[in-house]
Design brief:
- The chain is built from no helices and three strands.
- By secondary structure, the protein is mainly β.
- A hairpin with a 2-residue loop joins strand 1 and strand 2 (14-23).
- The two termini are 12 Å apart.
- The model has no long low-confidence stretch (mean pLDDT 88).
Length: 44
């Protein structure tokens, strides 16, 4: 899975990095037939 978006935020002398990943390779996903219009999955 590749990084599709990265956010960098600096606040109170701290740096926060959020990375978003998304893929349309869902062949391996168990029970994908429960979501008939599912095209991709992602995580933050």
């Amino acid at each position: 899975m590749k990084i599709t978006k990265r956010l960098l935020k600096k606040s109170h002398d701290q740096i926060e990095i959020r990375e978003y990943y998304q893929t349309d390779d869902i062949k391996w996903l168990a029970n994908k037939n429960k979501w008939k219009n599912l095209k991709s999955i992602g995580i933050i």
